[in-house]
Amino acid sequence: MVINDQSTKFAELDRFIDELEISDKSSALIPVLHHAQTLFGYLPQEVQSHIAERLDVSVAKVYGVVSFYTFFTMEPRGRYNVSVCLGTACFVAGAEAVLNEFEKQLGVKSGETTEDFKFSVIPVRCVGACSLAPVVMINDKVYPRVKVSDVTEILAEYKDA
Amino acid sequence: MKRILSFQDLHNLYEDVKEQTDMRLHKLNQAPDFIQLPEHEKDETKVRHVMVCADTGCIASGALSIADVLEETVNRYGLQDKVKVVKTGCFGLCSEGPIVIVHPERIMYTQLKPEHIEEIVKEHLKDGHYVEHLLLGAREGDPVLLFDQVDFFRKQTRVATRNCGIIDPASLEEYISQKGYLALAKVLSEMKPQDVIETIKQSGLRGRGGAGFPAGLKWGFTAQEKDPVKYVCCNADEGDPGAFMDLSLLEGDPHSILEAMAIAGYAIGANLGFIYIRAEYPSAISRLLTSIEEAKKAGLLGENIMGSDFSFDIELRLGAGAFVCGEETALIASVEGNRGEPRNKPPFPAAKGIYGKPTVINNVETFANICPIILNGPEWYKTIGTERSPGTKVFALAGKINNVGLIEVPMGTTLREIIYEIGGGIVDDKQLKAVQTGGPSGGCIPIQHLDTPIDYESLQAIGTMMGSGGMIVLDETTCMVNIAKFYLEFTVEESCGKCTPCRFGNSYLLDIMNKITRGQGEREDLDRLYHLGETIKEASLCGLGQSSPNPVLSTLRYFRDEYLAHVDDKFCPAGECVSLMRYEIVAERCIGCTICAKNCPVQCISGELKEPHVIDQEACIKCGICFEKCPTKAIIKI
After folding, report:
1. How many CA atoms lie within 13 A of B255 on its CB side?
2. Domain that holds residue A49
């Protein structure tokens, strides 16, 4: 779902909350946060406050949940998420060196986003494709059996994007 | 599909469709008879089934485009009435993906690319000759005619994964053709809730999530509670890095989990079930949502199932990336919309679970065993596996092994059988060093225990655990200190922070491990690791903390010499710890091609063309690119 206008996003979030079938609204917090992150791309303070008000829970509780789970992010991510799998199979196959190479070439640390918001480097836990270790995903595209020496070539694909 | 209003309706439907998928079953004990092919050709009425694995692993290696091209090509050759293309679940042999199996011939084509499809359609599906160079094993010069005759398949016993690779998981009808929902019908029509619990107790089925608690007992405790509202919960928060069996079961056979949850609901007196699943598994989530919807429409879930007075509904709850949520009480907190922090037990979830109500929480694989037990009886189940651990176990085999994939073996199978017979041995014939089981909660099994039969007790006795079933094979190039550090980093990151031993203790353990891998360790550190590790195990609140030092303690127990090498000699025998190794160029082997110098990111390699080159050790960042690029293997790790 791509909605660009902020107020439309909030309206869509409200619609989602109103249609929830869960009687106890506070237990809907995690599904609502998932939905909000899909809409906004991340969970900035105003979105968290809005959700707190609509679900009748404290902002502290919302922040507590957002900061607990690694899936939720309070920072905007880049257009291309470079997810380097650090599951055991990938680790044994050399994923750490691949991650370091992406960090070096993009000039950011893991979890960070480049200044032009083009790339975010995100270490992820097992994506369930252990037979292709080490695995890197850029958005939905899967790069199997990545070697350090492949990184330049992979990033070149996105040069003009 | 027509709505099923009675048990008879379901049995009638089963009779109608039961032969639909039989052709695809593994025929492990049948003699290879390749003569089938021309005979099949003569029979104009027969339809071939072409199975394409559409599980996460195979999709990642391009299975969906294979399926599309296959459909398109079959149509182009006018074979659409003679060939049925089926997208199915995991065959298990993930390292050979994408895979296509043609039935009834039982021919498996592996490592396919879209450009291979035309040949398969024309040669095999149209003209009836198999395509030799695409057969399993053909690339190694050893083509296999009937895939189910190879050790990888022959040595397995598929109970939980019985339908994976056999049916189209998106088709309820195909699930029913393999006796789907017959177990639920049997339970609702012939058994009292107490009988169901007794059956599961007698089968000896133990929780497949890792700890191995008897499932029947759990159900019994929850059934005894007087509360009118109870819940069933399926734990699909597969957090163990390197394990993907729950994912494959949910993607490959979703209805078997739904059916088993409904059976559990009937047994304990619950009308609502939750599946707590990782948000990182989008394909499994959408598959489950569709399957629940479909089952409800067909009258197999929801109000008055198959016309009975039993109603059962299932809702999904998404995780959000927290390993600790695999722990029952943390999972409950997360389902309720809170931070996933565990709490003290008792009260156990059987008494106070989700929303304070009695709750049965079982792992995906545990549920996957329920329907066969109901249909075939507990005695049948006990014939598989060992006395104290009946049944099978699904393992995700990964690491330095040839056949990376998903396997299911009877409990009591030895590691040697798994690695050398099913797994096809170690990559590049390297030396096996250890097998890691149980993920961040488990330990490393050294080669002297290769013949240990795998069950809950024997794994515990050698310092590791079953865990959810991740099995990582490590070879001589893996540093055992580094791998223990890897798991510890994982736990430190995933510790919820609620109790001190886990939060602080593991950070201190990691500090010591970092010191050792940097070459600054001392002898006393090994004692510190041991004592601190034991304390964390003793004093932590939940299963995560209580098991978090296991990777360190087990490697310390079996690979002390590697720790000593790091500490005393400041040397990493496997050459993995970057601070303790360096790259050097062997002058005799160097041809002076300059490839290394051109690729070096920090320009620390110098030398004239056609003269031996030298690495400036001060400037080298040990990235390993030169090591990989050198055409004459003149660069060595020391």
Report:
1. 30
2. 6-68
